[in-house]
Amino acid sequence: METHDIEAAINPLPRREEHIVALPGHCGGKPHVAGHRIKVQHVAIWHERQGKSPDEIVAEHPGVTLADVYAALAYYYDHRTEIDDDIRADERFASEMAAKSGMSRLVQRLSSGHGPSDPVSP
């Protein structure tokens, strides 16, 4: 009997590693829910910042299980500083890109079309 088989016989509970993986070339190498492109940081944001319950997260993401969400949250709490740093870096990057791109043509057209002679009110 292999070591893994002995361990499974002694402790039949699933391990967090079965739910959360970090693979090169997937999700930027960041920890994510196995079989999905949902990063641990996404689950943390949904739960911590948006106030969503694990049940709500599962309902919004077909194929993700409650065990996946709790494993992601456990991983987040075990690696909070690192993941919070990643979240802040992503937010800075998004802000920099938004500042560089300016207002889109669509937004410009929509905002310029609402004048006194515009038959459609805003």
Task: Explain how this protein is built.
The protein is mainly α and 122 residues long. The chain has six helices and two strands. Helix 2 crosses helix 4 (66-78). The longest helix has 22 residues, at 80-101. The protein starts with a helix and ends in a 10-residue tail after the last helix.
Shape: elongated
Counted by DSSP, the helix tally is 6
Quickly give the structural class: mainly alpha
Radius of gyration based on Cα positions: 21 Å
Multimer state: single chain
Total beta strands: 2
Listing every helix as H and every strand as E from the N terminus to the C terminus, the arrangement reads HEEHHHHH
| Main beta-sheet strand count, sense and barrel state | 2 strands, antiparallel
